[in-house]
Each structure stands twice: as C-alpha cells, then as structure tokens.
Amino acid sequence: MPPLQFWKPGAAAPGSSLDRESEAEGSLLPVAAAKNAHLSIDAQRQRLPIYKHREKLLWCVEKYKVVIVVGQTGCGKSTQIPQYLHEAGWTSQNHVVACTQPRRVAATSVATRVAEEVGSVLGDEVGYTIRFEDLSSPTRTKIKYMTDGMLFRETMMDPLLSKYSVIMIDEAHERGAYTDLLLGLVKKIMRKRPELRVIISSATIDAEDFLEYFNTNADGTDRAQDDAVIVSLEGRMFPVEVCYLKEPCADYAEAAVQTVFDIHMKEPPGDVLVFLTGREEIDQVIQQVSDRLQSLPSAAPKLLPLPLYATLPPEEQELIFDPPPRDTRKVIFSTNIAEASVTIDGIKYVVDCGFVKLKTFNPRTCMDVLTITPCSLASANQRAGRAGRTSAGKCFRLYPSSILPTHNPRSPMPITTPPELVRSDISLYLLQLKALGIDNVAKFDFMSPPPSEMMIRALEFLYCLKAIDDEGRLTRPMGERMAEVPLDPMMAAILLNSHAFRCGEEILTIAAMTSVQNVFITAEGGTKATMAELERRKFTAEEGDHLTLLNAYNAFARYGTKDKQWCGNHRINFKAVSRAASIRKQLKKYLDRFEIPVVSCEGDAVRLRKCLVSGYFKNAARMLPDGTYRSAREGAILHVHPSSVMFTRQPSTGWVIYHEVIETTKSFMRDLTVVDEDWLVELAPHFYTFKGGGLKKHL
DNA sequence: GAGCACTGC
C-alpha cells in the first residue's frame, strides 16, 4: 500500500481553532517540573501561566455574576481559581467555594493537589465529596471539590445552595446531564441570590453559547450592562501540528494501521495514541498491526501496540502507563476513554479516525441506539491536544480538511457533541427536577431543551410508575422517595415496592448489581470466552439474569469479599461487585429512613419476579416461534443480547421483562427475567388488559 | 446464534 498523503497546513492554517490556539501559545514555554523542584509552592504557583490573570479574574468575579473561563487543560484553572477566590475573601463568613467536576477521579485528584498547595489536610480546609466518600468538613472546609451529580443532589437539601459564595462548574463543555441541570438551577438561583457568583470553565468553541445563555443583557447594545463575561487564559500546552488526508478514506481502520507504520518509519521517536470507536475494532486493528510487524526486517525499529478501553481488565489497562522497552515505540489504540477520562503522558503523535460511538435515545421506539458517528470538531480538537502535553506534537486526522464544519456548512461533522440531556431518556432527571419543586419542567430554562417528544415520553413513564399524578405533580410518598433514591425510576419503584412482595433483601442486591457494569469478566474470542461462560453457569438461574446476578452476589458475599483470587477464578469483576456492595449498603439506608421493612423472600422466586414486574412492566416481550421476541409496548422485534443467560435458553412461560434495549446491529434486550403473562395484567392493570385471549396494551 | 463509547447519584 502506498503511504497515505497528508496535507500539512502552513503557519496560517485554515479552519480549526486548534491551529490558531497553538500559534498563540507558540512562544509560551512551560516550565519543566524538575527545574521547579527547588522552588517553594508559592513560587511554583506564581510561575503558572494563569497567575498573570489572577487580578483580572478576581476583578471579573466582583463585577460580573457569571465568568466564563476559557483555557486549555493544564493551564491550572481547576486548581488555582478556587484558591484565588479563597485568598481574596470569598470564603469568609462561613462561605464555601465549590468546584464541580464531571468525574470522580478528577474531583479527588484535584482536591488532593490543592490541599497540598494550601497546606491543608485533605478534608479540612480543602475537601471533596463524591458518592460514598465525603472528605469535607461542614464547618472547616472552604474549598470543596465535588462531582456535579453531588452538587445537584445537595440542591434537594438546600435549594438555594446558600453556603456557597462561588460555584465553579468545570469542564462544562462536556455537557453531561448533571452539568446541564446545574447550569439551569444555578441560573434560577442567581435570580434569588444576586450575590452568588458562577464560574463556567469551557472550551473555546462553546464559550459564546454559555455567554448567550447567562447574559441577561439580551440586546447587547450597551456592553456595560452585561452581567456575564468571557476570560481567556493562556494554556501550558505545546503546539500541535495538525495534518489531514488529501482524500477521504474508505476504511479508517486500514488508514489507521497505515498511518501508524508511516509514523513509525518516518517520524522521530515518541509514543502514538490512536483514537478508534470500539473494543472489537481495536482488537482487530491490533491484530493487523501485529501481523504486519512480522513481515518487518528484524533490524527495524520496534513497536509495541496496546489496547485501551473501559471493559479491559484493570491489569491490562495499567500496561499503557509503563514505559516501553528500550528503542520501542509505544502505540496505544484507544476508544474515547483517552479523550478526557484517561490521560497518558509522553504522547507525541495522535491519529484520529474522526468517529465516535454515541448512545442516543429514540423516544419513538423507547430504545437506546448505539451508533458510530462523526465526532465533533470540539472532540477532534481535544483529541489533537493529547499530543501536546509534554512536548510539541503532531496529529494525523484520517479525513480531509474540507469536511470540517468551519469549511463546509453541510459538513457531517458537528461543531460540538449534542449534550447528554437531549439524547437520553430524561425521566429520572424530570423526576428529580419535580422533587426540587419545579413542577412545570417544560418551562425549566434548559441551555439546550430536550425535544418535546422526549419530555412527553418521560412524563408518561413517570405517570405509569405512579411517581406523578394526572396533573403532573409528584406523588407522596412514592414519587418523592423515587426521586431521592439513587436509582433509575423503574428500579426505584421496584425497590420501594419490595416490602409488598416481602423480598427487600434480594431486591436490594439486584438493584445494586444492575447499577454496576461488567459484573462478569468476558475475555475476547475463542476458548477463553467459553471458559468465562462456563464459570458463570455456576451462578446461572433458569429464571434469568436478575436472579443470576443475585446468585453471583451471594456467592461473592460468602467467599469473595476479601478474596480477589476467588473472584478471578469465578470470572467475577472484583471492583464492580465491591462497588455493588457499597451501593447495596447505601440503598439499605434509604429503606431504613423510609421505615420500609427489609425481609428475605426465603427462596420464593415468584415473589421476587413479581416485584420486578411491578417496575419493569412496560418492558415486556413475548417469544415468537422463530426464537426472536416481540415487545408488548410497541410490537417491535427484539433479540436477546448474547451476554444474557437467556441467550441460550427459552422462557418456560414465553414471556420476559427486560431492563433496557440497545440497538446496534439489531435491537438487543439486556438483563432479562422470565415472567408470567398473568402477572403483567395483575400488577399493571392500568397498562395492560386481556382482550380476546391475548395481552393488550392500553393506548 | 453473536457482542457496550463514556460518565454520575
């Protein structure tokens, strides 16, 4: 295959804002950590590029209610801005500065760093709050890092978030569901608390969107009336040269392999990060790379290909951080996990296929669709930036520059990724908003309002679960409690119904186990996969996946809580099930507080399965003679997901309920339990009746 | 007979 032709933009590259940003920072050289080692913490802090903007930032926070801060990763905004505010007195009179993060690791690691810089014991002056871990003091903590979901939850206790003087929403451009909910809430709170200050940290690309959303000076003729402002910070990134393919390629996986070998043969030493879309694709590409390595002369420079994706066992994930053997180039083939969640130092080259796997809820079919779609320009810029963390780098985009949305108004590439709230089932979020007293959710000031069809679907769901009444008001105590427990509405209903079926012990376990992913370890392909499957059979329940999860948890509780070896032998993911144990404990506390007695069903699986039907009833399907299923709700053809124990079985009653459907190549049901047709009518008469000998869904 | 990107309470 001839080498692929890349186009190298000149100094004045058209298009991508990334190119412009890199140019602007071309003269800015970061200070090596080693060189700084002798400096005091204060001196180190003053050397950060952001320090030059300290006074301006503080002035803006005084003058404007909302400050939108734009700066690349590594410029120190998450660690420094809360400290500047603390030093400037924003934490006096028992006030707290909050800084939210979209991920748990970010909240804990940034808090740890800042505690060191401030000279505080973690949990004292500087603390963090994430689920299951509260290292903060209600009286002494002045700077509090937390996940956005946690701050959202705090609004249930304190609707005005009155203890906070400044709330900084970090990584807002990622537009996670709780980030968007917080944006709306904070905007609402500001009307009642004019003294509250909000800082939004975002990427350059959407800063204007945030400004427009927050600025109440709508006509904009007199800028002096603005109450929101954008502040640009210099980053500490190195320049990244971006190259494009001259022509579109037919197969990006093939192009990725070719590009990796071109880099390997022609470019100076440095590790490579390749962005692809999924596990299967990554395993295949690595196989191709390994095959081609065989044909290379033995004297050729060495190359070490490594996979990276979320379901990779932890010990294999660790390998990407190890330095490669001498004279070997490390090449990491990764999913989107390396875009923001996992940071690898020493990457000099990025290869970007330009695609991402994205989950989108279809309200018409009530299914999640998982599709490979062009990534946004914002994503592409973030990916490219991964090449410039420790030295100047180079990014190879496996598409022509002509498809960029900045060049082509009809580009398939969006400028930003659609926010999570507009492509999810929002019933949980609407329920939580109602719990905050926002009854008319359609009037809530979403930065990007979810499509009305999604709203209607979600409200219908909540009504048939009895969480809201026919006027859309939260029911008491059912709806109120459902909003409070950290579960999706269906499972919340099941848990709260469990006392009626006398099976709380078991439902607690099932709710916890369905809340974590990848309970069972499945190795890729061949005999290993069969082995994992065989091990799982030990826990297999004929009644389906929920009872299988229950069996696995009970075995773990008896033998595996402290025994990683036992878990490995039984192909159980130790971390996942340990987390399920924490979740179970937390859920139990909620039931205790609601004074819902928790008893065991003593092996009576019928009670247990009926209880599951009391929440899952709308997700019912009947098996057809050809082995596929037809959904009771929409009459859609469904398939059993290969990870289900029902993949190799047939339901004795002909009926199943399921947790969710994901559409990939087909529509797959996940987490199934065998049920009786009669139970559907018995437990959800408002949803189903018998007509002419068959089950009919009410319209 | 065939497979899930990633977060969060």
Automatic annotation (TrEMBL):
UniProt-listed InterPro entries: DEAD-box_helicase_OB_fold, DEAD/DEAH_box_helicase_dom, DNA/RNA_helicase_DEAH_CS, HA2_WH, Helicase-assoc_dom, Helicase_ATP-bd, Helicase_C-like, P-loop_NTPase
GO molecular function: ATP binding; hydrolase activity; RNA binding; RNA helicase activity
A UniProt-annotated Pfam family: HA2_C
Group of enzyme by EC: hydrolase
UniProt catalytic activity: ATP + H2O = ADP + phosphate + H(+)
Gene3D superfamilies in alphabetical order: 1.20.120.1080, P-loop containing nucleotide triphosphate hydrolases (3.40.50.300)
Nucleotide-binding keyword on record: yes
Name of the protein: RNA helicase
